[in-house]
Specification:
137 residues, mainly alpha
Amino acid sequence: MIRGLKVLLREILAPINTAAIMILGVFTVLWGTWVFVPFWDVFTRATAFHYFLILPEYFWGGVAIAAGLAMINGVLRSSYRSLTTGALVGFLHWFVICVFFFAGDWQNVGGVTYLMISVYCAFIWLNMRVNKNNFAS
């Protein structure tokens, strides 16, 4: 059991695959674009989105686009600062989304899904902090 935990910890602390970060960044940009587009409204469709209406959709979409682009930029330019900033903003964004989903409809699987995405952003941020020397800037 202890050996398994040591192996898991070693793997978690190993430098992360940047392709996985890129996929998350692209997903975040696409989600943000979908919400940002003014041709339709997203958050008036279901009661689970009730709490999102505190701020306009372009805010939620804009934050997601900015976080996703920062992650993508961080991968493409090997930029530690861009990547950690994007991951931290992504974590905060997705965590708030998670909380609002649970508040709007606690039985909705959206809360669990966005919790996982926020945890993954937090993992990227932490992994980058641990492996800072692997990035150029």
